[in-house]
Amino acid sequence: MRHSRVDWAESPGAAFARWLLPSECLTCQDTIADPAQPLICGVCAARWAGLPEPACARCQHPRLLDLDCRLCAEWPPEFIAARSAVRLDERVREVAHAFKYGGWRRLAPLMARRMAPHLDQLGPGDLVPIPTSRRRRWRRGYNQAEVLAAALAELTGRRVRSSVLTRRSGDSSQVGRTPQERLANLGGAFRGERVMGPVILVDDVFTTGATLVSAATALRTAGVERIAAVTFARAEPPLGAATRRRDTTP
């Protein structure tokens, strides 16, 4: 089956490919019979796994029951929680890559539907997408975090406030950096604006948390008193990589 309709929610190249080729699942390449179906077949979407438990109640990092979490121990106190919908395995990585770099913005509603229950867990708050640099926006044609926030807003009725957080530096890639290098690379990358009420940061992938922490720090500096975050996917470090045994000494 061929599509004759160009969807301008996609990049021109992706839209042309979708018009030219049969509708295929981006993960398994099986034909999707329903042209209204998103770009991921139901079988592959059902295989997206949630994060393992037990996990830290604040940052969702997997941990053993008798261990404290070190990952979020140094987060700003105003940064109360972060939630991710699915684990970043190879299937999900392909989807996230296609969404971020391949021009497939139409994946956003499907991703947002998986994120919405976790958004509800975070309580009230306006949605603040993580900003990207002008160079990356120009190269990709969009900011993937803004597209996700818009899809979440349409699904949940929440307000998107893109102007609350702006990027002023940090255009160098985070790929391949250690958590400490990522955080140092993002030092002072964002500028926040004070708003009344809580906000929820929105991004596509939580890798080490450095981007979210840097953004939350900027908002805290601006006077925002309650900050949370939601992402579609979360890279899974080894169990215990950011935990320490709880001190039970009286």
Structural summary, described in words:
The structure is a single chain. The protein is α/β, with parallel strands linked by helices and 250 residues long. The chain has a single domain, classed as Rossmann fold (3-Layer(aba) Sandwich). 32% of the residues lie in helices and 16% in strands. It contains eight helices and eight strands. It has helices spanning 12-20, 42-46, 90-101, 108-121, 134-140, 144-156, 179-185, 210-222, and strands at residues 67-69, 79-87, 126-129, 165-167, 190-192, 199-206, 227-234, 243-245. Strands 2-7-6-3 form a four-stranded parallel sheet. Strands 1-8 form a two-stranded antiparallel ribbon. Strands 4-5 form a two-stranded antiparallel sheet. Strand 6 (199-206), helix 8 (210-222) and strand 7 (227-234) form a beta-alpha-beta unit. Helix 4 packs across helix 6 (144-156) and helix 7 runs parallel beside helix 8. The longest helix has 14 residues, at 108-121.
Strand order of the largest sheet: 2-7-6-3
Strand content: 15-25%
Largest sheet: 4 strands, parallel
Q: How many strand elements? A: 8
Radius of gyration: 19 Å
- Name of the CATH architecture: 3-Layer(aba) Sandwich
Looking at CATH, which topology would you report?
Rossmann fold
**What is the CATH class?**
Alpha Beta
Number of domains: 1
SSE string, helices as H and strands as E:
HHEEHHEHHEHEEHEE
Q: For the residues shown, what is the average pLDDT?
A: 82
Helix coverage percent of residues? 25-40%
Global geometry: globular
Structural class: alpha/beta
How far is it from the N-terminal to the C-terminal residue, by CA?
69 Å
Unreliable stretches = 1-8, 243-250
Task: Give the helix tally.
Answer: 8
